[in-house]
Each structure stands twice: as structure tokens, then as C-alpha cells.
UniProtKB/TrEMBL annotation:
Main location: cytoplasm
A GO CC term assigned to this protein in UniProt: Golgi apparatus
Protein localization: Cytoplasm; Endosome membrane; Golgi apparatus, trans-Golgi network membrane; Prevacuolar compartment membrane
Listed name of the protein: Vacuolar protein sorting-associated protein 35
Organism: Penstemon smallii
Sorted UniProt keywords: Cytoplasm, Endosome, Golgi apparatus, Membrane, Protein transport, Transport
Amino acid sequence: MYASLSQLKSVELRFDRETSKMKMMIANGIEDEEKWLAEGIAGIQHNAFYLHRALDSNNLREALKYSAQLLSELRTSRLSPHKYYELYMRAFDELRRLEMFFKDEDRHGCSVVDLYELVQHAGNILPRLYLLCTVGSVYIKSKEAPAKDVLKDLVEMCRGVQNPIRGLFLRSYLAQVSRDKLPDIGSEYEGEGDTVMDAVEFVLQNFIEMNKLWVRMQHQGPLREKEKLEKERGELRDLVGKNLHVLSQIEGVDLEIYKETVLPRVLEQVVNCKDELAQYYLMDCIIQVFPDEYHLQTLETLLAACPQLQPTGDLKTVLSQLMERLSNYAASSPEVLPEFLHVEAFAKLSNAIGKVVEAQVDMPIVGAISLYVSLLTFTLRVHPDRLDYVDQVLGACVKKLSGKPKLEDSKATKQVVALLSAPLDKYDDIVTALTLSNYPRVMDHLDAGTNKVMAMVIIRSIMKNKTFVSTFDKVEVLFELIKGLIKDLDGISHDELDEEDFNEEQNSVACLMHMLYNEDPEEMLQIIRTVWKHVMVGGPTRLPFTVPPLVFSALKLVRRLQSQDGDIAGEEVPATPRNIFQLLNQIIEALWVVPSPELALRLYLQCAEAANDCDLEPVAYEFFTQAFVLYEEEVADSKAQVTAIHLIIGTLQRMNVFGVENRDTLTHKATGYSAKLLKKPDQCRAVYACSHLFWVDDQDGIKDGERVLLCLKRSLRIANAAQQMANVTRGSSGPVTLFVEILNKYLYFFEKGNPQITSSVIQGLIELIKTEMQSDNTTPDHASDAFFTSTLRYIQFQKQKGGAMGEKYDPIKL
């Protein structure tokens, strides 16, 4: 059946009324508590007034009467711990004044023994016990009775108050007034039967009773107020922990007493209370207040208690703090490091963590990993030389993660990244991390995105520390670690990536390749082959980033091997230039499929130049052939063609390995392609650039003046055709820049001594340019004018300089 609209409205109104009622109750509760606190403070102040008057007149009876009435205000059960504390502190201040009165027997005329009996006649138990503790403090100080007897009596009598809040504050008062009167080594209360053990027993007994009261608080109210009770318990925890602090301050509590008495008794109480809040807080107290040396020597006992604690407790934080304290202890006192080995600290911690993780089956994965992070941090600080320990921790983490899907919890992922980053930060050397067999196995459990983040962390570590990876097996492990950057992992594709992020990642991989180096050529070639095996599967988007650095790394190896040509006996794939060039050919071919023809062409020319330096003519010719094939078949964009042809011309000009036939073939192709460029100005510039192929200064035999002149004349014709075409299409012939550029080429070869380039030829070209500039059809251009003026100025300078060059320039008339 469906509820009617009126029924729904009725339910909604009833809910609103209940909510309002609850808010009013909360508000009224806060107001009531303030009112009760004010009444309590007023009661204390009222009785304190008469107490002060009684003290001033040395009237013991009146003083006891008004102090008991004052303390009766602490019997309230209506205040929260926070408000009760305010009331308690008011009463505490008056009790200190009363204690000073009790100490002065001349003022009240009553012996301390009689006073101790007298205060026990107070009507209510709470005021009676506060007065008894106050007099007890004076009693111990008087030394009229053994301190241990008074302390024992007081701690037993305080059992009379079983209300948790009232009992805790009463026992806190007892601890406060007795802490400077404990029989301790060097204390005035030691001796005559009073020993350190008596002090320990008193504090432990008080601690046990306080902890029972504190734990019992959780059962004091209805279930709906559980959260409020937990908050109140949190406010009272320092009262309980104060006892452990007092124990740690007792001089006589040496390692033996701590080991045999204090720690077992405290741990027994911690385990038996079966309360998650108490267990976490008290374990934390033990770790924080007692000396590091004690923890190290009692590690087994302390850790044995951990699996017995409540599985819902925050045990990971406790263990993490313990390991942090021990590692800080080791760092601050290097002389204690042998002691860590002696007590087998790592083995005990590792075993304890394993038991905790195994016992707490419901522990979130982030909790388990954070424990391993803490253990690894401890290991790296205390035993940095024990890589087997580090690998053992990583192995334990792998065991915990195995059988589970890739991590999706961001907190757990963050902890795994911290785990993997710790060895890198410690050793400043990725090579050390590469020897850890479980390192890549941990990384396999990261999701694709985090795997890439971790890979970037590894690369940055290498670059920051300038670490060279020098063996192919370590390179294999390294590239397995960063595989998220060099190929698409499951669950993520390139399309999902931000282009800027992707470029940054690939540039980082490219930088990494320059950190792979070995002096031994054979090992270096193995490294190059290993890298190629990994990057070849990177796909068309990654290869343009990863192939160039790999090619240049191989070319660097070729330069080191320039003197070798033959094969090295006994090697399957010897590291000779010829074999490396074969590998390079395969690598660059991969860019054809991308496609990235312009990049492939540049790399072919780089290889050709390296082959030239190694005096390998067939290899160099093959690389040029590949470059021309790429130019013909793949480079379609006109601008890319211009760039490519100039690169080809520039590289070919520097080659000296070719014989006449091969060189003629290549130069013929270069000049032919230059004349076929789409735009006339581009044709012109490429053709006059080809003139350098026939005149090379530093080599004999390549100084063909006629072919140089042929190229320059051809470029002039093309420039003239460009002018005419501009005249037809735009009605003006355009600037004379091309003519001035060609004039500069003429001057270059004229100075180099080309017999075909004469002063009369240059003179004719100058006149041609002047005529063109004065023509009505020529478009004025300041840049062209300035260029021509500068060229004429240069000629004038050479004429005036004199000497052989001046004589050559002298016939030219400007």
C-alpha cells in the first residue's frame, strides 16, 4: 500500500517536532550544565570564605567543617569532565592552602597522627578521602610513619569512590600530592624499609585502579550517548596516562625493574581491559614516556602484546610510532647500532607486523601498507647496508597485495608510492633499487596512472643524482619499472592523456636514455638493443620522442669505435660501427610507419655523416639513398621539402668518403630536386646552395669552378623568372633580394679563387641589380635595399684594404 499525502505530511511534521525537541534538549543541557557549574563554584567560594576565616584564626574544627562542605561540591554527577575539571581546580587551590595549615602543627595544636585519624570522621566519603590524601601528604613528609604504609593505605582507601569521573579526579589528586614524596633513589623518603619498589607498586596500583574506572565509563550511560561518552573519556585520558609519566620519572626504575615489573604489569592491564580507546592510548603512552633504550631491550615483550589487542584499534599508528622512535634513537646515537643487531630488532618488528596483519583480517589494505612503510623507513635508517632487509619488507608487501585487483584506494596508492620512493630517497641511486627483486613486483600492483607517476619519480631521481645505469640487465629492470611511460598499459590509452603531460613524460624518457652508459662497447651495444626492445612497442605517438635519443646514443658509441672496422672474434654480435649502423637502420625505419618522415630523414643524414667519419662509403651511400627515398615518397609538404633539401645539401657538402661516381650521383639528385621545388624563390635558393657541393675548400679534387658557375647562372635564371612571374601576377616584380643573395654567393667563390667567377661577371650582376632597383615595376623594400647597400659597402672595404684581395676587387666599379 502507498502512503497518502496527508500521512506523509504527518510523518514529516512529527520528524520536525522530534528534531526541534532534540535541539532544544541539547541547548537546555548546555545551559543547565553552565548553571550547575556556577552553583558549584558559588558553593566552593562561599565555604572558602569561611575556611579562610577559620585558617586565619587557627580554628582546626571550623577549618575541617568548611573544607568538607567545600569538597562536597565535587560530589556532583551532573557535569561533563571538562566542566568538572573547572570545579576541581577551584577546590584544588583551597586544598593547597589547607595543606600548608596542616603542616604547621603550632597553628592547630594537633599531631599529624591524630589529624590523620580526625579527618576520617568526615560525613561523606569523597570529602573524607580528599582530606585524607591532603593530611597523608603531610604525614609522609613528617616521616612519623613509613611512606610505603601511608601510600598503601591511601591507594586502598580511594577504592571507596567508584564513580568514574569522581574517582579519576580523586586518584589524580592523590598522584599529584604524592609524586614528590615517593621513596626513590636519592630521595629523603628512601630507607628504613622504604624502597623504590614500594614507589613503583603504589604508582602501578593507582594506575590500575584509574584505568578500570576510565574503561568502566563506556558503560555508564545509554547506548545512544556512546559518542558523547567516548568524547568524555578522551578528555580524561591524560589523568590515567599521568601515572605512566610518574613511573618514567622515578630514578630507581632501571632497565631490570622496567623489564621484570613495570612493563609486564602495565601490558597486562592494557591487554585485559579489552577497550580499543584505552589500549591505543596506553600503548602510545608507553612508547612516548619510557626511554628508547628500554624499548630496544624489551622489544619482544612489547611486540608480543600487539596481536592480543583489539582488532579495531589503531595498532598501525602505535607500531609506526615505536619504529619512528627507535630509528630516531639509532640516528642520534650511532654507537647503539650494534645493539640493534644484537637484539635482532628488524626480525622482531617484521615478525610482529606479519602477525598483526595476519590476525587483523579486516584491517584495510592502507593500514597494512602503512605498517610496511614504517618498517621500511626503520630499516633504511637503522640498517641502510642490509638490502636483503629492504627486499624482505617489499616482499611482505607483495604478499599482502597478491591476489587482489589493482589498487584503487587513493590512500593505499599513496602509501605504496611512499614505500617505493623510500629506497630512492635513501640511496640517491636507482642502481641500488634495481637490485631489489621485489621492487618491480610492488609496482605491478599500482593502477596505470599511479604506475606512471612512480615511473616519473624514478626518472627524476636518476636525473637529479646524475646516476648512470651501466649494465644491460639493470637497464632491463629499469625499463620494466617505467613501462607505464613507454607503452600503453591496460586501463589507459593515449587518447585519455593531456598532451602537455604526455610530452613531458616522453621527454623525461628521452633524457633518461642519455644516462645509460658503459665504457665497454659490447655492454653498451647490449644496452642499446635492450632499450630498443622496450621502446619499439611504444606506438606512433611515442617513437618520435624515444627514437632520436636512442639513435644519438648509438652514434656516440660509433664515434668511440671509429678506428675499428672488422669484426671482433668470439662475439656473436660484435660492437663494430658496421653492425651498429645496421641496427640504426632498423631503428630509423620504425619512424616510416609513424609516420614521421622529416625526423627519419634527419636521422639518416646524421648516420651518413657518422659513417663518413668511419670511412664506410657503402654505409654512408645507403643512408643517403634512404634519405632521398623518404624525400621522394613521404615528404609532401612544400615547406618540409625546402628544409629537407637544404639538410641534404648541407650534409652532402661535408662528406669526403665518396668516390667520384657516388658523389656525382648524389649531387645530381640534390640539384635535380632543388630545381623541382614548388616556389621559384625556394628553387633559386636551393640551386645556389648546390654550388657548394662542387667547391669544398678543405679537400683536393672537389673544386669544379664550371659547375659552380653553372649552378649560380641557373639560380639567376630562376630568380629572373620569379621576378617576371611576380610582374604578371601582381603587376610589380617584387624585391631584388634573390639577386643580392646570388651576388653574395658570387663574391664568396670569387674570394675562394674560382677562376670562372671574374670581376666582370660580378660587375655585370651589380649593374643588373641597380637597374632592377630603379625599374618602375620593382616593389620598394627597405630590407633588400639595406642588404644590397651592405654588400656594396663590403666590396668597397675589400678594395680599400689593399693587398692581393684588394687587387682582385679593384676592377669592380661601384
